[in-house]
Design a protein that fits this description.
This protein has about 180 residues and is mainly α. The protein has five helices and two strands; from the N terminus they run H-H-H-E-E-H-H. The protein has one domain (about 5-185). Strand 1 (about 115) and strand 2 (about 120) form a beta hairpin.
Length: about 180
């Protein structure tokens, strides 16, 4: 049996992933900025990317919907909803801090934090948010994806290209900022 992947098969597999990532990254940007507004009175919180997307919030739900199926035991669902977003937050914070010497969040003053990148309080928040995402929000997002299948087959390469360029631009911008700070400091 020959396994052949043509553009249409690739699109059917990749388009929903790109769509979910885009939608959840946008939701994450809205959540972060709303939280910033409610706690600090400022809506536009500094972001790694220039556009209105928070990739951590795109990556975690894509992983969650990949690992959680209708047959997944509820105890395993709770564990996955606790571990996945916490791990994404930890590794994101570690990478950003290591390569750009900047913390976009810092839980150092929170109880039961680990290296300031994660803390128990927010891990429980991510658990609850993940449950809402998987069981309340995602069915609606998935339905919208099914309704938009044809446009997504056409647009997913452009979205992917946007995120690649946006990420490369952000990396370059933050490296220059880091070098400028190191030069002045």
């Amino acid at each position: 049996m020959e396994l052949s992947m043509n553009w249409s098969s690739i699109s059917i597999l990749v388009a929903p992933i790109i769509y979910f990532f885009t939608i959840y990254s946008l939701f994450g940007w809205l959540i972060e900025n709303t939280h910033s507004y409610l706690t600090k009175g400022v809506f536009f919180k500094e972001n790694f990317l220039l556009g209105p997307f928070k990739p951590m919030y795109g990556i975690a739900p894509v992983l969650l919907i990949t690992f959680i199926t209708p047959d997944t035991d509820w105890k395993m669902v709770l564990l996955i909803c606790f571990i996945v977003p916490t791990a994404v937050e930890y590794f994101s914070g570690l990478i950003l801090d290591t390569y750009f010497h900047k913390k976009w969040w810092d839980y150092s003053r929170e109880k039961w934090n680990f290296q300031g990148h994660i803390c128990l309080k927010f891990s429980f928040s991510w658990l609850l948010l993940s449950l809402v995402c998987v069981y309340v929000i995602h069915p609606v997002v998935e339905k919208s994806c099914q309704l938009l299948v044809q446009p997504l087959v056409f647009t997913w390469p452009f979205l992917l290209f946007y995120f690649i360029v946006e990420t490369l631009w952000a990396v370059r911008r933050h490296i220059v900022q880091k070098e400028t700070i190191e030069t002045l400091g």
